[in-house]
Amino acid sequence: MTDSTAPFIRLTGISKSFPGVRALDDVSLDINAGEVHSLTGENGSGKSTLAKIVNGTHQPDAGTVEIDGVPTVITKPAKALELGIVSISQELTLAPSLSVAENIFLGRMPRTRWGTVDWDRCLRDARAVLDDLRVHVNPRTAVRDLSLELQQEIEIARAISSNARLLILDEATSSLSEAATDRLLEIVAEQRDRGVGVLMISHRMPELYRSCSVASVLRDGRLMGTVPLPDTPEDALVRLMVGRDLDDYFGSRDVAPDAVALKVTDLHTLDGALLPTSFEVRRGEILGVAGLVGSGKAELGMALGGAIPSRGTIEVAGREVAITNPHQAVSSGVGYVPDDRKGQAILPNRSVAENFALAWRGTLSTLGVLRVRRESALVKDGMTRYGVVAAHENVRISTLSGGNQQKVVLGRTFARGCAVFVLSEPTRGIDVGSKSQVYALLQEQVGKGAAVVLISSELPEILGLADRVIVFHRGGVHAEFAAEGLDEETVAAVAVSGRPRPAAA
Amino acid sequence: MTLVESDPVLAAETSPADGAPARRRPRLSLGRFTGVVIALLAVCVYLALTQPVFLTWGNITNIVASNSVILLLALGATFVIIGGGFDLSSASALSATGMVLGLALQAGVPAWVAIASPILAGLAIGLVQGVLISYVKISMIVVTLGFMSILASFALIVNKGATISVYGTPGFDPVYQFVNGTIGPVPVLMIFDAVVILAAAFVLRYTAFGRSLFAMGSNQEAARLNGINIATMVLFVFLIAGLAAGLAGMVSVGRLTGAAAVSDPTLLMTAIAAVLIGGTAFTGGEGGVLGTMIGVLFLGVIQNGMTLSEIPAFWQGTVNGAILILAVGIGVLRDRGIRLRRRAITTKVG
User: Does A240 share its domain with A252?
Assistant: First the structure.
């Protein structure tokens, strides 16, 4: 099987654009049967877009797809399934109210000869698949009653049981514990030995080096190279991903942390998503906040920004403040940038200028009438100062690239001149160049004495920018580290298990 | 006159994508109204050629007068829709406020009390709806649907389903003069309409409230996180809608010389259609009152043309519905065209 001359799937010259962003640019890639092929690159480099072209979610603007040497157009996800292309992503696609067995055989329930659902076989087969994966759940259980991790395993069971020829793992391990990750990687190896091709999207180095025999690196939608693993050293791979050495990538600042700017004591939410949390951040300091999705780190940001109700005390520059709504956060000197740019930060069908002008909302009007000229001058200044590139300040913000949109959002927050900035995933979904610019803006603010709480799922970013790091697990802080000399594995271990690794402790 | 009054975004719509050098277009731009304005002019030219009455001053003032009620309701709806909301109760609120005026006139109150009564009633209706939506947190569709029914019923209850004739009541003369009088050749109502449109355009374009309204309609969560108080905004939006309904109620009574217990059932649909034809997005966050004025004029001229051409009024609904779908559909296609062109530009640049 592995000797067949044509690769299972061959992509040639694939390009794909979305409004304002070139997601993929002339990417060519072969994935062979019986091979684990890693697709890697920073967030926003086009990995998921490529995966979605292969699984039929998106259509390429240009380029061809060949399967077993035959040109094929994968018109829709159902077509991809027919071809044996199955995806497992970090977003679950289960029907929560249905049983485990029904989810495993969703859309392909075994039938009796009368055409009705063959429940006996369905349960029997489901149990067999689950046993194979060493997952011990009753196939009759409703999926919504399972833990998130077990749900992910059901998702995997569904993919395995469909006799896939190509398995796409899109950051599938990001919410799994170490043990579950281990098991998944074992399954990947088993599937590979059976002749299944695997496309593994991940930027976790240990996983790549353990499972993959080849890695393709994307940066800003372009293929930077396809290299053999594990023969390529890690720093060479990273350099391919970010395109430069890490030091000038994150920038630097010349400032010594000063007086305490933000003191948080027992901050928590009533729904238990955020357990009582206490910490301090000084002027001129960045506190990195790490943790998995759902660990409470996002809720910490929302609570500080007044986006969700919370209890506990918050002191800004030594003065206790009440933050029960976003308005109070703004007036208390806390500038919050939410993680969901499209859903929570931009006004998509308004202009760049209007989006930026939210910075001075309420302060630039006389008896309710806007001071239009002053505002327009401030907006132009701000756009220059924070490096926003747009044809004109009156174009819709949605026509800008993600990076430029984010610079508007950050710029308008910085322009408020807050004492404390709480930034949640500030570089999510933007290209490498914009990331570097965002880091530079951030360093500049901190250099001027701002205190920053940097909440991020990207560990390299936290390690590259923060002075100290706190790690969330299941709603609470489980460890605090000085960033100096800290490595990703140490932080990841706490994020996943809540405990430092024995060696690091 | 440049027609891109309330929405600078629309003016820059055709600018190239991200990163490309700015190309300023100094020429007069009709922006997104281009299609509707051209269609309106075409209809006018056709009518002017075929119906000699059409271009007479009498007919023009008639078009304005007979569409003022719809204009006022549509202006209120423009605010609600820009803010991302929807108001089903406006036509019923017009009947109810008209009945309030009718009752006040019948009771023989002084003219200024009578004139104030529908306006206050409209504001009260808006206040109650706003509080229920903003503070009790009942969904907007439920509240306005409920009020649509309650207010229509109220208008029937107060005079047992009969029209209140106000002709000859002591307070009616100022109302009548306001709605039917003229200053020189110009009807007072036409001046009033113009003033209201300009005021509404000013509020949308040049006030902090207007800015916040667009922000709320464009992305309510982003508006909230930037410190805009959504509850207060919704309350004010419904006060404006209530005020508009009250004014519409007064104009309606003045024109009919009576308060009708039942209003034209197509009124709500026509007012909202005018707003959407005028380029205000149903999804909120974009649009303006000048577009609404064009939308009202368009539907008004068509109706007038059909009357002049002796086409049965039964066809009115068909024509209005078709125009609505066409106008909004052309807008959608136009947007898609812009996106495609922009993608082409991105492809070239990127």
Answer: no
